[in-house]
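Lay summary. Proteins are chains of building blocks that fold into shapes, and those shapes determine what they do. In this project we predict the shape from the chain. Here is one chain we studied, written as its sequence of building blocks.
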Amino acid sequence: MESYDVAVIGGGIVGMTAAFFLSKTGKKVAVIEKNKIATGTTANSFAWINASSKAAKGEYMHLNARGLSGYTKLAQTFGEHPLGLNPCGQIWIAPKNDAVRYDELKKRFSLLQQEEYPVTWVKSKDLQILEPSINYMGEYEGLLSFSEMCLDAPRFVHFLSQQLEDAGSSVVENNEVLSLASDDSGNVTGLLTANGEIKATQVLLAGGPNTPELLASLTGFAGFANRFPVRKSPGILITTPPLGTKRLTRRVIYWEQSPDLHALPHFSGGWRIGSDDMDGVIAEEDTPTNRKFAANCLLKRAREFLVGIPDDLTVEDCKITVGIRPVPDDGQSIADIFPGTENFFLLVTHSGVTLAPALGELMAEFICTGERPNELETFSLKRFPGFS
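And here is the predicted shape, written in a compact code that computers can read:
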């Protein structure tokens, strides 16, 4: 039986990035994934790397900014293309005749400036130069975030997986983790899986939206399945086929208006499109009828907001996906050692694409040193009832 320094449960972007940083410290790591790596939430994410959407959230905003910076550092080492990075930037736009939305965007701009985040305000005439394919139905102004990116998240995960294996670690797919293995004193010694025992000095759970159920299985306490402070939040996206040589938008675009829309240039050559209100339709009831309704609404809205979508393009031509996002009860990351243990760690978060380099590096430090980094103090389990 092969032994490892750390076993990571979960082959999505959060688990794989943590494993990568652990490997960089010299640890021998095993990533165990029930299905194929990068096929769950990771494969169905909007995959916009940003901190501008968390402008008013203090330490959580700083953590997201660290994630963005982490991608820049990785790109300096490996290059943008191998990682699947597109450093395209992002623009929030709001109609000036919607006083509430416009004022909210101005406030976001002010908060980001106070944080010295790289942004600028864009007047209407300049907005039309920056993004000429937007259908400006009235006078709009915008907030340009220079440094933000989008990511081909599965490509990124597969790249890190190869880095792990090249360094002597293991990535094990199609293997379900059944429970923690422990000695007579109750100390965690590894994992019991469908394919046998895996010995590991330390264990990190990065199970994404399945974290509550996995905790119930790993610990034998069924109550975690319903009581652990993480909920599932579905998000529907449509991705168009390639639309020729003309780009609809050069950047990630967020329309701050009602109805809302967000879109980005996808790596396939098409456009990935979503909206908060259509996510709500799926959250209410995820049925084939609701998926088709939401997809049709998204395509219709995109056609109204963007110039250049072919008239004959239908949702049947598009890829429709629903990603299940893990959202802690207060919306912010959980990064901690599990109470009552000395070597069982937990990492679960929304915005995993943005946060993966930050949380991965910080959790690697936590696991290797046994000392919680100051940046993770805010994100411990003790802030939730029952864990204080």
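What the prediction tells us: The CA atoms of residues 112 and 291 lie 35 Å apart.
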